[in-house]
Amino acid sequence: MSTGIVLAVNLSAPNVVDDAIAQARSAFDAGVRQIWLAQRFDVDAIALAGLIGAAVPGLGVGTSVVPINPRHPLLVASAAQTAQAAAHGNFSLGLGLGSHAPEQQGFGTVWPNPVERLREHLEVLRAIFDDGEVNYRGREFTVEPEWPVRIPGGTPVPIYVAAMGPKALRVTGELADGTLPYLAGPRTVGEFIVPTINDAAAAVGRPVPRVTAMVPALVSDDVDAARQLAAQQLAFYETIPSYQKVIAREGVSSVAELAAVGSADQVRAQLRTYLDAGATDAALSPLRTEQSDLQALWDVTATL
Q1: In this predicted structure, what is the pLDDT of residue 178?
Q2: CA distance 135 to 52
Q3: Residue-range domains of the chain with CATH
Q4: Residue 49 in 3-state DSSP?
Q5: What digits encode the pLDDT tens for the residues 54-100?
């Protein structure tokens, strides 16, 4: 199993890009071979991934995840190919369906039909990445450029989707290269996510998708305190319907139970349950970002 790290972007640093590159280089020197970057309303995840990929040769860089709203797939394709050229083939594009509450707060509107928008978004990306051209008319997007859409050195671009519902997983299996489920425990991965996405991919003749379990984590000798921290930081997800369904499917009473916490050996053991359930990869998302905590997670990642 390949294990990565969600890079903790430090917005209090004098220069966020310099700090992220330095952090990524330190993680690589510690044995980490894949980092993921979340998209928020501040740092652009695709751009930063490309910059890190260019500065730290050999390090896999990816986004986990860039919401498809309000982004047009033609612009996402341009940004992703640019990042791939900068990273010399080590970039992965992770997308998400988004959530209505942040969209309303950030953009003043929401986008209906999320699964249909995802399908069309992926169909446009596949045409550009696979064929180097696109002529597309859908209900959500029209893409008919009269200029080149392929960037030299910018393909192939692996596409992953943070899909957890059955419809989104089927679309992902048909059109993407894998999924990046967050807070989906081993039971959910093994009994629902893996069979659903694998069946969808097989039905259209695509390769077996990768399933990268994104797991909040903290190496700590005080398990109770770590669980309490996890409960505080993850409480937001218990308000989102899609995550409520995932938590219920896992059969836990609190989202904090899905965090990998404890000693380094305990965190490793918890991560191995995802491999046993059928995940192909995992990525640790730090619950605390002090340097010693990050170093401990890097060590776990390098030795799993």
Answers
A1: 98
A2: 32
A3: 3-302 (3.20.20.30)
A4: helix
A5: 999 999 999 999 999 999 999 999 999 999 999 999 999 999 998 88
